[in-house]
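Page 47, continued from p. 46.
Same chain as before, 419 aa.
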Amino acid sequence: MSEYSIPYGKSELSFHIPDERKVDCIAPLEAPAAADPRRAVVQALETPLGASRVQDFKGVMSAAIAVNDKTRPVPHQLLLPPLLERLEMLGLEPASIQLLIATGTHQPMQPEEFEQILPAEILARYPVFSHNARDEANLVHLGQTPHGTPVWINRRYIEADLRITIGNIEPHQFEGFSGGVKSAAIGLAGDATINHNHALMIDPMSQLGVFEENPARQDVEEIGKRIGVHFCLNAILNTHKEIVHALAGDPYLVLQHGIPLARRFCQVAVDAPYDFMVVAPGGHPKDINLYQSQKALYHANQVMRTGGTVILAAACPDGTGSPSYEEWVIGMKSYTEVFERFKREGFRIGPHKAFQIARDASKVHLLFLSQMSPDFTRSLLIDPVSDLQQAVNLVLSQLPLEARIAIMPRATSTIPYLK
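Result:
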């Protein structure tokens, strides 16, 4: 028997598969961390792509930085200090440098949660606010994009003289890649903006790993232009969430240079579809809730045989992460009912997660291991399992010896594709 392990929350789960079974591991390439990550960040800030250095933005009286929320593994403790030092070199007082937590339509983070993503010394020195996409009084309207997306953005961010984004460049299931202006264009946007942009995921070109031809992602770029994001600082992380590369400067150029670097690590060629796969989003915070964990199933489905079996192991300590998704899907009886109602009612954030899960789970047999109760999981139209090894044994007992089997331990950081 061969032993395998996958990330699960803040720990790991192990399981065995008989040696006579051939098992592939589909995962990002192991990339060495930068020898001195702080130096890598400083170097990026001092040699920005297509933009002035931060300390050269003379005459500004205030700055706002869009930082990612607890659902993203952004190394703020490494990215922020050199950036903040340079903002203070401009003569800005700490009180005039705001950090805005870019939650998008996620639940706003409470002040007692801020320490989960930001170092104590930063919390003590700079004002920090969590965005609320539904707080209309704190949103500013900036017109609409060529795709018809109404642009409503956080007022604190718009009113700052210098607007900055921080984040990671990594695969995204329908925006192609994260990074660039997205932390502000989606993370600090209003409900109407996010809803209209995310409705573009229905377009066949709104795909994992597609950037230039991706209507959803290009709409994000247009939102960013309306906002006027001045500067971007992004990182590319390895499988241990360590900084491999840091890039800074003009948000679009950061992505133009960063996407090929990220693709080099995360894109994996596959010979043929698989019959059975054990999948994990990548551990905390990528499996903090079902809203995030669904992405792993989508990534896995890119190389799954229709009718195959996927065991998705995601801790989900925060449950689904979306009350509106729960309210919409609970009481429904089938994926067909989900599709029909979603089409009838039109695109809405929250219910869109029910559509995505139905879309992906209807193509395979999905078994789901999490900390959520089995009855609650079933109410979401998902089949729960309570023991990973037992579930693996059951699936294997129904498969011929020659069945194609794989493990995808960090699915949301992986772009698998058929040769």
